[in-house]
Backbone:
């Protein structure tokens, strides 16, 4: 399983400022605790295609075995729990998604 993750957050309209404040604390908190690589996260804001509701993405890389440790750390939960409250499920999609991905390159 890859350690690179693309986080997708479906933020409730009107909560963008509060969410962004937490998002900007997210990777620094994980990094300070030694849970992610030294490569800073990338963060993006967009809109759902049909509704225009706020949609955020964050890409970063966990260190081996760190995902499980993160779920047990109070400093991480102090960021994750309020982030969760600022997001909403939409249709059949959950409020947040975290697919782990592998980079691909063209071979010749």
Residues:
């Amino acid at each position: 399983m890859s350690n690179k993750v693309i986080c997708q957050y479906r933020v409730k309209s009107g909560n963008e400022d509060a969410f962004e404040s937490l998002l900007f604390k997210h990777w620094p908190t994980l990094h300070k605790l030694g849970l992610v690589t030294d490569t800073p996260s990338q963060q993006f804001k967009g809109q759902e295609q049909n509704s225009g509701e706020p949609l955020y993405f964050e890409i970063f890389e966990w260190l081996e075995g760190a995902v499980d440790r993160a779920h047990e750390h109070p400093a991480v939960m102090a960021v994750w729990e309020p982030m969760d409250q600022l997001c909403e499920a939409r249709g059949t999609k959950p409020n947040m998604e975290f697919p782990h991905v592998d980079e691909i390159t063209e071979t010749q």
